[in-house]
Write a structure and sequence with these properties.
Structural class: alpha+beta
Oligomer: single chain
Shape: globular
């Protein structure tokens, strides 16, 4: 039987944005509005920093394997230096097959790509504070209505961990939750469905080293790496050999009423490595709907729409409309 509890329903992105921005956000030097639950380099609310800087991606050959490259990425910002005493956030290295490396790199004409961008960087504590700010603002501003059984302390975002220390870079907002299906069951169901509807990756993303794990901050403390990846390759002649696909990162979470959460998106042809991320449409809402379409045909699963407050206001992930899909086992 479907369990119910009092929950917030239909939070409009403009209303939530206005309320939270007044409490937690500051104006940056160029007068742009900062995303939910962030502050400037000098904020005293123990919130992560919406930092202005440059993203540097460097490719080098993998000396242990002639057909692979290692991608080194770092974000450099004066805002980070002011806040943490270190201007550099280093992402974990990625191992890539040569097919996913730019031709200019393979031909040794270019090894480094640099883009001006903004990133949300903070310690685990600061990012946890930010999520709690968003939850508290939500519960204080909107009337309670009867809605699906999904705990308000569910993780709101996943993060890229710093390779050198405990800092985290906020990545995309989560937007999927399952009541009783864990990551292993979700993956098995989606990859082994009837031919035509099954989610299957491309050969280039089937390898473990091609699947980049992120982390969520658990409501009861600590972090959790990605438990499973589910990918569905999209045939696209424009992409040539570069993979374009629907992609879900899944996390098993110890949250009342929820077994697993997920972050869906659509990877672009170059997986976002060669373009400024603020100009990429990750199609988060569309990817969420693709997952809902799959599960709506599964017997015994009720598909419902809810909101938990992580409406995205930055341009990087503006394709998230603030809505989650909740899969309730009847």
């Amino acid at each position: 039987m479907t369990k119910r509890r009092k929950f917030l329903k239909g939070i409009a992105s403009t209303s939530l944005f206005g309320a939270v921005q007044g409490v937690t956000a500051e104006s940056s030097s160029d007068n742009t509005v900062q995303p939910l639950g962030t502050g400037g380099a000098g904020n005293d609310e123990k919130l992560p920093v919406y930092a202005d800087g440059r993203l540097v991606s460097h490719y080098r050959p993998d000396t242990s394997h002639e057909d692979r490259y290692i991608l080194e990425r770092k974000f450099e910002s004066a805002d980070l230096a002011e806040r943490y005493g270190d201007p550099i956030f280093r992402y974990k290295d990625q191992i890539l097959p040569k097919e996913r490396v730019p031709e200019a790199v393979q031909e040794r004409r270019k090894t480094t790509y640099t883009f001006q961008t903004k990133k949300i960087i903070g310690t685990e504590v600061e990012n946890r504070n930010a999520e709690e700010h968003i939850r508290q603002q939500q519960s204080g501003e909107f009337e309670l209505q009867d809605q699906a059984d999904i705990d308000g302390n569910v993780p709101l975002y996943h993060y890229d961990p710093d390779a050198d220390n405990e800092a985290q870079s906020r990545s995309s907002p989560l937007s999927l939750a399952w009541e009783a299906q864990d990551s292993e069951n979700i993956k098995q169901n989606m990859e082994n469905d009837d031919i035509g509807s099954a989610w299957q990756p491309h050969a280039l993303t089937r390898l473990d080293e091609a699947r980049v794990d992120k982390v969520v901050n658990l409501p009861n403390g600590g972090t959790k790496e990605t438990d499973a990846h589910v990918m569905k390759w999209i045939a696209d002649p424009i992409c040539a050999i570069h993979t374009k696909q629907w992609h879900i990162r899944l996390y098993d979470v110890p949250t009342d009423g929820i077994t697993a959460v997920g972050q869906p998106h659509r990877d672009p042809c170059d997986h976002g490595k060669l373009s400024d991320n603020e100009n990429i449409d990750w199609k988060i809402a569309e990817a969420r709907d693709q997952v809902a379409d799959f599960w709506s045909d599964v017997s015994g699963i009720s598909v419902e729409s809810v909101s938990v407050g992580n409406t995205e206001t930055s341009t990087e992930f503006e394709s998230h409309d603030g809505e989650w899909t909740y899969f309730d086992d009847d």
